[in-house]
Design brief:
The structure is a single chain. The chain is 26% helix and 40% strand. The protein is an alpha+beta fold.
Length: 126
């Protein structure tokens, strides 16, 4: 193997290792509980989704668009006592603690397991 080829391969391996370690460091960012003000600031105009089954679009004035398994519906959202409250008929209204790590979000409601999702700009849907 020539010295030039060896240096090129070494550089590629080193670059891949750095990317892998940086990704791992970001993935281990701890979840942090959001306050009511932070929830309102981060969620207004955004979409929360599991990227497969459901998505909620948090519009201004508390309007909520939801998409579940390709079916669209509407509801409302608000923030009360540092919790995100969703009213999505026919389901009962429910409030959640919101925990985030980057764009990863957990909606926590006792005694259930957290709902895992990501927060992103709204996607176009049909």
């Amino acid at each position: 193997m020539t010295m030039r080829l060896w240096k090129t391969k070494s550089l590629m391996v080193a670059s891949a290792a750095c990317h892998l370690f940086a990704s791992a460091a970001l993935a281990t960012e701890p979840f942090r509980h959001l306050t009511g003000r932070e929830i309102t600031s981060r969620f207004t105009g955004m979409e929360l989704t599991d990227e497969v089954h459901w998505a909620y679009v948090f519009e201004k004035a508390g309007r909520l668009k939801s998409f579940s398994m390709g079916k669209a519906s509407t509801g409302t959202w608000k923030v009360e006592k540092d919790e995100l409250c969703l009213d999505r008929p026919p389901d009962e209204p429910r409030c959640y603690e919101v925990w985030t790590a980057g764009r990863n979000v957990q909606l926590r409601y006792e005694p259930a397991l957290p709902e895992e999702a990501i927060l992103q700009k709204p996607q176009k849907r049909q």
